[in-house]
Design a protein that fits this description.
Blueprint lengths: L3 E4 L8 H5 L7 H15 L5 E4 L9 H6 L3 E5 L14 E3 L1 E6 L2 E6 L14 E4 L12 E3 L10 E2 H8 L8
């Protein structure tokens, strides 16, 4: 059995993201090591991790190989160098069912998504915590979640507080 986790906008090796997003790190190396530790503290080798884009800048092979779990990528804005990693799969957008919940995954936020008017969830990144939830959707980026992946059960607790989009 495995657990499912979600994460976005790690921006490994991207020193300028610290300034842009006011991340509490003195260097890209410190940021990388913190995210790697946070990831591996909760993700086991057989768990599934859905990364919703902007994994990193430049060659991140050594970082990728240090991260636990089966890793799936939803392409973000900066994935050119990251497509060479051995992801379980790479897609632009994706819908999946977990424990009876339909979840629409993409890097960018959508105002409407598959089954959005029927209570489905939408997880996204890209906005680094600058966009409030809309319907049953919210930002799953590391800037919002203490620089770590988020477990499905945590997401369920947050989604239970939100209202589905009414037509």
């Amino acid at each position: 059995m495995y657990d499912s986790f979600f994460i976005a906008d790690t921006h490994f090796n991207h020193a300028r993201i610290i300034e842009y997003c006011k991340r509490p790190f003195s260097s890209a190396k410190e940021m990388n090591e913190t995210i790697i530790k946070n990831w591996n503290d909760i993700v086991k080798p057989k768990d599934y991790v859905y990364h919703l884009g902007d994994f990193g800048w430049g060659n991140c092979s050594s970082i990728f190989n240090r991260l636990n779990g089966h890793k799936f990528l939803l392409k973000g804005s900066h994935e050119k160098d990251n497509l060479r990693h051995p992801w379980s799969w790479v897609k632009c957008c994706y819908g999946l069912n977990i424990n009876g919940e339909y979840i629409w995954l993409s890097h960018r936020p959508h105002r409407a998504w598959q089954r959005s008017f029927h209570g489905s969830w939408h997880l996204f990144g890209h906005v680094h915590g600058k966009l409030p939830p809309y319907g049953k959707s919210f930002d799953i980026g590391v800037d919002c979640w203490s620089f770590r992946p988020v477990h499905f059960d945590e997401i369920k607790l947050e989604m239970d507080k939100l209202s589905k989009i009414e037509v």
